Amino acid sequence: MSAVLPPSLSSSLPGTGSTSVSGPRTTLLSPAAWTALFAVLGVLIVLVPMLNLAVPAGNVLHLSDYAVGLAGKILCFAICALAMDLIWGYTGILSLGHGVFFALGGYVMGMYLMRQIGRDGNYQSHLPDFMVVLDWKELPWYWALSDSFIATVLLVMLVPGILAFVFGFFAFRSRIKGVYFSIITQALSLAGMLFFTRAETGFGGDNGFTDFKRILGMPLATPTMRMALFVATGLTLIAFFLLARWLVQSKFGRVLQAIRDAETRVMFTGYDPLRYKLAIWVISAVMCGVAGALYVPQAGIINPGEMKPAVSIEIAIWAAVGGRATLIGPIVGAIFVNGAKSWFTQVIPTFWLYFLGGLFIAVTLFLPNGIIGLVRKLRRQPPAEEKA
């Protein structure tokens, strides 16, 4: 049987050359990788706070509040790229609608932040300003738990997760795959954008939510809170990376890779691809929802624009540029692309979209394995003197 099975699955089945169903044991990270991880932790929780809060503003080593805020938002995008890698790189499912899950998490957090404004809004009402303008007399029922931070944290994961479960169940059960699945996910993002654009739905219409003032009762627009959000985002990214690493190294992850390589053969062995694809689809959506919730207090706004199909396409580009099925690659891709975007939009803003399109074409034609693939290739290549 092992002759017809994908390599990623054959080693985990009995009778196929393995003495255990669980397959070969591997460590979560190599010693060098753990060292790099602790170095990153040191940068996040020690170096960056020190350069921003302790070093005076006039010093050349000072890290500005703008730089910290920008870095925090880019780390949120890196979480989305990591989530995309789990479903596209390791499962072969290209989603062009992950911006919906990102925005849903953002809207849940935005509702909480709007309630935190209290009567400090322009109309001194217990209702958000946009509801006062629309002459609403009370909060809609779905705003009932928005004043609780604990409920908000749970809903940040539940709302994207439930939508992903329902959508994924019917899509995967119907065996929709390939470009057709990508198209319906793009339709999902467009439908979400149109729904949240309508003012009568109670989500702020085109303008969305903004003018946030507090979180957990503490002022939001302070250097200390900005740094706290940055550190929380960095730690969340590391936690999700370790979770993703554990998933892809487990038997669950090897089945996902087998589904990516040969789904029909996986079905013949008795595995149900629906359950595996649905599970990783929901996990990926929840990760994007958490990223959106961390993004909103740092960006200071959430609106239907975050659901545009172009946003979801950008998430896929980050994963492709960095290198799919590597975990670290999409993170690198998100940091590289968004860093370039920040620079181009300040220096030559009209050139940014041409750069993004050219970058994606170049990666597709010349770097199919992305930046990480190129680095690995260069590391394996012997020096010139050894070739001679």
Describe the model.
This protein is mostly helical. The chain has a domain at 65-308. It has 15 helices and 4 strands. A two-stranded antiparallel ribbon has the order 1-4. Helix 11 (309-322) packs parallel to helix 14. The longest helix has 27 residues, at 223-249. The protein is globular. The two termini are 45 Å apart. Mean pLDDT is 90; it is low at 11-22.
Topology (SSEs and partners):
Elements: H1 7-10, H2 31-54, H3 65-89, H4 98-117, H5 129-133, H6 149-173, H7 178-197, E1 209-210, E2 214-215, E3 218-219, H8 223-249, H9 251-268, H10 273-299, E4 301-302, H11 309-322, H12 328-347, H13 352-366, H14 370-380, H15 384-387
Antiparallel strand pairs: 1-4, 2-3
Percent of residues in β-strands: under 5%
N-to-C SSE string, H for helix and E for strand:
HHHHHHHEEEHHHEHHHHH
N- to C-terminal separation?
45 Å
Alpha carbon gyration radius: 23 Å
Report the helical percentage. Answer: 55-70%
Overall mean pLDDT: 90
Shape: globular
Uncertain stretches of 5 or more adjacent residues? 11-22
Category from helices, strands and their pairing: mainly alpha
What's the helix count? 15
Q: How would a textbook summarize the main sheet?
A: 2 strands, antiparallel
Overall strand count: 4
Spatial arrangement of strands, main beta sheet? 1-4
Characteristic key phrases:
two-stranded antiparallel sheet; 388 residues; mainly alpha; single chain; 67% helix
